[in-house]
Amino acid sequence: MIVALLAVIGVEGWFVYQRHVVDTAAAEALDAAKEFTVTLANVDPERIDQTFTDVLDGSTGTFHDLYSQSSEQLREALIANEAAAHGTVIDAAVKSASKDRVEVMLFVDQSVRNNKLPQVQLDRSRIVLTMEKVDGRWLASDVEHP
């Protein structure tokens, strides 16, 4: 009887620990996703090269590869159009989580202007980021606009 009770306590303890690991991962990834989204949503013509470096540093996998391949064209378009944007995360929530992969939905307001739209325009969007833990860091591996 005592052995069975100890076994049940041990199994329950293991489940509690696993839930704690996932909850910790979700909280860390949520913070990293918010920070990454702010980096992605802000375009300052004076800091464009640093922004591109920061986006690549905060990403991995497919998104990193696609962004890296298209960054020069995007950079040229942003400069040619004198684009500027300021984005803020209005709200965010974890959609799903495991210890090394977390999906986060973010609601973002972004004020945008360029030489074709000199008056600031407000863009409200939803973004779903897939965050993966790589070498102890939470990095964006996929970015979707559902």
Automatic annotation (TrEMBL):
Q: What PANTHER family does this protein's entry cite?
A: OUTER MEMBRANE PROTEIN RV1973
Per the UniProt record, the source organism is Mycolicibacillus trivialis
Q: What is this protein called?
A: Mce protein
Enumerate the subcellular locations listed in this protein's record, separating them with semicolons: Membrane
Task: Enumerate the UniProt keywords alphabetically.
Answer: Membrane
Chief place of localization: membrane
Report the superkingdom from the record.
Answer: Bacteria
Any one of the GO CC terms:
membrane
